[in-house]
């Protein structure tokens, strides 16, 4: 992918093959992506794991870091729920495969509020995945505003292992980015990683 002369990246379009209902056209298509500065390209290894809704890269060096971008299915049809569970199962497999050798950060649109006390099957499945894998996140306010501007929710998160928490300096929802044309606000984290390449 070509983004900018100083940027490299990978990405996957999720729903570009599905017809979009005319009422949803303003939102465009969704997908996953991970970008990095070109001068780091020799230290980044894109991985061919996951599915159309999960993309991964590893940062190589003395301590390895796995970055995972996700876009989980919305609520809707029973097939959407099945795809949601399948994505969580794939995330579980990825985390289990890389936990012993990598620090892991997972970020994206989970289409569920992980921190809410909502007792739905989807939410429980996702929260169970977090608990089983000792994944942690923080509440950072509203991350999604629907097209009418009336419906809001917190569905975008950054997750990391409990033992990585001490490396995270700050997390924030960036709800004032003038150039953001998405109905989602970016979530940003700053962390310190001591890395020898």
Automatic annotation (TrEMBL):
InterPro entries: Endo/exonu/phosph_ase_sf, Endo/exonuclease/phosphatase. GO terms for molecular function: catalytic activity. Signal peptide: none annotated. It comes from the Eukaryota. Pfam families: Exo_endo_phos_2. Residues 66-187 form the Endonuclease/exonuclease/phosphatase domain. This is Endonuclease/exonuclease/phosphatase domain-containing protein. It comes from Mytilus galloprovincialis (Mediterranean mussel). The lineage of its organism: Eukaryota, Metazoa, Spiralia, Lophotrochozoa, Mollusca.
């Amino acid at each position: 992918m070509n983004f900018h002369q100083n940027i490299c990246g990978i990405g996957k379009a999720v729903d570009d093959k599905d017809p979009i209902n005319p009422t949803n056209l303003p939102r465009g298509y969704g997908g996953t992506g991970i970008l990095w500065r070109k001068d780091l390209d020799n230290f980044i290894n894109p991985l061919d794991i996951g599915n159309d809704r999960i993309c991964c890269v590893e940062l190589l060096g003395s301590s390895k870091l796995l970055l995972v971008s996700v876009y989980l299915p919305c609520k809707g049809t029973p097939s959407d729920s099945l795809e949601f569970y399948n994505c969580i199962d794939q995330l579980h497999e990825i985390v289990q495969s890389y936990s012993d050798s990598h620090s892991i950060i997972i970020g994206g649109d989970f289409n569920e509020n992980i921190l809410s006390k909502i007792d739905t099957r989807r939410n429980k499945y996702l929260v169970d995945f977090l608990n089983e894998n000792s994944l942690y996140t923080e509440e950072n306010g509203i991350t999604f505003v629907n097209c009418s501007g009336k419906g809001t929710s917190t569905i975008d998160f950054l997750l990391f292992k409990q033992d990585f928490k001490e490396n995270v300096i700050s997390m924030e929802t960036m709800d004032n980015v003038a150039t953001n044309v998405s109905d989602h606000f970016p979530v940003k984290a700053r962390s310190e990683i001591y890395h020898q390449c």
